[in-house]
Write a structure and sequence with these properties.
Length: 256
């Protein structure tokens, strides 16, 4: 498995580089294919040897080779996160046809989190196809996060998608706009990939983590109670926590 973990890390970092492109271009309605990657400061195209995930950032000292402008550390962060999540997915669920779909889910959560953090939007381009892909994969290959030896199944995927969408629709109605349509569709996607129990745990974990961050911003950054904080990153955190450790968290709760 060591070789598999190394391969998962390398593949994850390479795909993570493309995720950076998605995070920057999708909300700006720019093609993901053209133009090629370039420095945001001097607009010089980036050479392939300067575009090696994580490594190039370290070798260049976090600066553009040509204009010496600083490169955001977010780029290697996204690459490293995606690589680590791929390794964890392989470790928790083993190798098989399910693994590409789990990795796809991890990558989608990363893109959603960072786009929502920057623009307070969650693109339908990710969530709506994600619901369909999740339901198809649940029917044939996706494992249940709370019983990893068992197939999730189409029925559980449908219940998960509906429960995620309906729950957050009700929250949006009751909060009078405090929750957006993007969150509703995101949770429908989470439910389709991981089932209804994961929807509940994701909501709980995301809300708990979001509350801690909100209190931190209020106490240490002087933010008010009405300051808008995107919920997508917290839901993404909750979804990945549930995917990787849902079975253990449920057992811990039942035997508390």
């Amino acid at each position: 498995m060591t070789a598999a973990y190394i391969l998962a890390f390398l593949l994850g970092s390479i795909i993570g580089s493309f995720l950076n492109v998605c995070i920057f271009r999708l909300p700006r309605d720019i093609s993901l294919v053209k133009p090629s990657s370039r420095c945001p400061s001097c607009d010089t195209p980036i050479k392939p040897y300067d575009n090696i995930p994580i490594f190039s950032f370290l070798m260049l000292g976090g600066r553009c080779r040509y204009c010496r402008a600083k490169i955001s550390p977010r780029y290697p962060l996204v690459e490293a996160l995606n690589a680590i999540f791929y390794v964890i997915a392989a470790w928790r669920y083993g190798l098989g046809w399910h693994l590409p779909f789990l990795c796809l889910f991890c990558s989608a959560m990363i893109v959603i989190a960072f786009i929502d953090l920057d623009f307070q939007i969650i693109p339908d381009f990710i969530t709506l196809p994600g619901v369909i892909i999740g339901l198809i994969a649940a029917s044939f290959v996706l494992p249940d996060p709370f019983a990893r030896d068992s197939l999730l199944g189409l029925k559980e995927g449908v219940i998960g998608a509906v429960s995620g969408g309906v729950l957050f629709y009700l929250i949006a109605v009751l909060s009078r706009g405090g929750m957006g349509g993007g969150d509703i569709k995101m949770m429908a996607m989470v439910g389709s990939f991981t089932g209804w129990k994961s929807v509940l745990l994701t909501t709980f974990a995301g809300s708990l983590f979001g509350s801690f961050v909100g209190l931190f911003l209020m106490v240490f950054r002087g933010k008010g109670r009405k300051t808008k904080v995107p919920f997508g990153p917290f839901l993404a955190f909750g979804a990945l926590l549930t995917l990787f450790f849902g079975q253990e968290l449920l057992a811990l709760y039942l035997h508390r």
